[in-house]
Amino acid sequence: MWLKCIGVGLVVCAIEAQMFGNLIETVRLYSDPVLSPPEADFMYEYDFIVVGAGSGGSVVANRLSENWNWTVLLLEAGKDENLLTDVPLMAALQTSSSYNWGYKSEVMKSGCLGLIGKRCNIPRGKALGGTSVMNFMLYTRGNKLDYDEWESLGNKGWSYKDVFKYFLKSEDCSKCESIDKDYHANGGYLKIQHPQYNSPILKRFLKAGSELGYKISDPNGKNHIGFSQAQATMVNGRRCSANKAFLKPLLQTRPLLQVTTRARVTKILINPKTKRAYGVEVIKNRIKYVIRARKEVIVSAGTINSPHLLMLSGIGPKEDLEKVNINVIKDAKVGHNLQDHMAFSTLAFLVNQSVTVSDASVQNPSDVLNYVINGKGPFTIPGGSLGLAFIQTKYAKKKDYPDMELVLGAGALNQDTFGTMRALLGIPDSFNERVYVPITGRPAFAIATVLMRPKSRGKIQLKDNNPLHWPKIIPNYFQNEDDVKVMVEGIKAAVAVSRTRAFADLGTRLHDIPFPGCEKLRFESDEYWSCAVRQVSTTLGHHVGTCKMGPDNHPDAVVDQRLRVKGIQGLRVVDGSVMPNIVAGHTNSVIMMIAEKASDMIKEDWRR
User: In the CATH scheme, what architecture does the domain 196-229+342-453+479-536 have?
Assistant: First the structure.
């Protein structure tokens, strides 16, 4: 990655030459040779080492490298994107690829009972761009009250008025339509766009919202409650991942930023006496290296991998670490407070016209050409999601604070010919054969219900002290009965949307073959939906909270309000794991906001 001096400048080249001349400390898995810089692809030391090139790490690496006096190393376990990851409609396909860590939850008694192996799929991105390479790209920021609540918990500087500017800093919504312009910005790295597809189902969805008394609103504008067309992280109809937004535009212009792929960090190096982080151990090409950080190690590995890495490094619950023979450097509630948005994505609404999108319908050559040449058509639908609605059920208590989201799908699972969506959700073949095969090929759309403010809490634990082994993921979905009650109300709201006059001309009806495991209950009763929720609700991939942010006197907090790991110098966590409570919205933009704010705090701290 080292740039030639031509066009860069003699001063920069001199700095590079000095840095390039440093020795590299390396450790082979079975021996201790010292490798030359070209073979190792690392220098001996950097000012900042960022672990993980997801939505948080990409932003931090970008912003810290704005300072031309700082060397920044960004380490990513995965690889770069390819052309398939660009296609919004094919988002589900990426979860069956090597871009997904492939995690699965432990078996639970409260949820995922009807999924394969009674375990939930936990898709997490393993690529430059992290999960933003395979998510459904929906762009929402949560609710104002989410951030005011963060501040009320003792996290000064995290209220909505404090964080709003950081959402705007990232954003380029210059190609957005029908938005609340006072709440958006142009010129940022992250491109926002509506799907470039004129859908008759979306028009009816918005009309249904009006019929039910909701406003057609901008979910990122003044009013959160309402129905809207999807906003997505796209540019010219193609995915705009964190990598494409924050890394690719500058890799040839910032020589002191080094981005390295297929590099697995296995440990944060911490002096047990001074309690200061001074580097990392990383495996690349089956060789283990030690790389030092002059200023800070910044962990942006995500809500699963960040607590895993901290615990492997001696920061975590004392009792749990001692069980797997890890020396405890700091006793902390790492891995606790796991939260997620659960979604019920298995409803199918049959219609009598070919107005939906299926695996078969998009094989039309004209659709392919329209996408390739113009960046328009059904292939621009982000994960198949056309529109969304933030609503309140009868259990919501605060004004304009939704507890449920409805996401309109361009097709339903009976049209999932290639099985990519079923594979993402973990739907068994037996379920598919019983419920969807009888209506295979018939036009249908879906409305997924998403639990916005879950009360259930899970945790991440170590299985053992081998850094290459997965951690235990215990999400405890629906452990709190209130979560089931809210989800049931959301399902009833989705069915109500389908039964408005707006959908009447399509002969719309809810597919009524009962779900396996719930056949003995009256279809559409609260008891039936409660059973179905526990059987086949699945993650939306919005895992947060496992390195909780909180004030010094909070016993469960792992990081302080400046995201510094408590009790350890030179170590921060910058990703979704720091959220004390999950937001009422999709989390990708929120993680970028956190990283934007963290970058400013890091700059402030080192200017002092």
Answer: 2-Layer Sandwich (3.30)
Tell me if residue 350 falls in helix, strand or coil: strand
CATH, domain range 20-81+243-335+544-607? 3.50.50.60
On whether the pTM is more than 0.90, the answer is yes
**Residue count (the chain):** 608
Integer Cα distance of 550 and 156 in angstroms: 9
Residues β-bridged to residue 264: 283
Rounded Cα gap, residues 42 and 33, in angstroms: 15
* Each residue's pLDDT tens digit, 110-152: 999 999 999 999 999 999 999 999 999 999 999 999 999 999 9
CA distance 537 to 425: 8
Please give the Cα distance from 535 to 488 (Å, whole number): 13
- 336 catalytically annotated: no
CB 538 within 8 A of CB 112: yes
Instruction: Give phi and psi for 38, each to the nearest 5.
Output: -60, -35
Locate the DSSP E strands across 362-412. 385-391, 404-409
pLDDT tens digits, one per residue of 220-264: 999 999 999 999 999 999 999 999 999 999 988 999 999 999 999
From 194, 341, 542, 586, the catalytic residue: 542
Pick the closest to residue 144 from 404, 400, 391 (CA basis): 400
Band of residue 376 on the pLDDT scale cut at 50, 70, 90: very high
Which residue from 450, 460, 461, 600 is spatially nearest to 540, judged by alpha carbons? 450
Question: What are the residue ranges spanned by the domains of the chain?
Answer: 20-81+243-335+544-607, 196-229+342-453+479-536
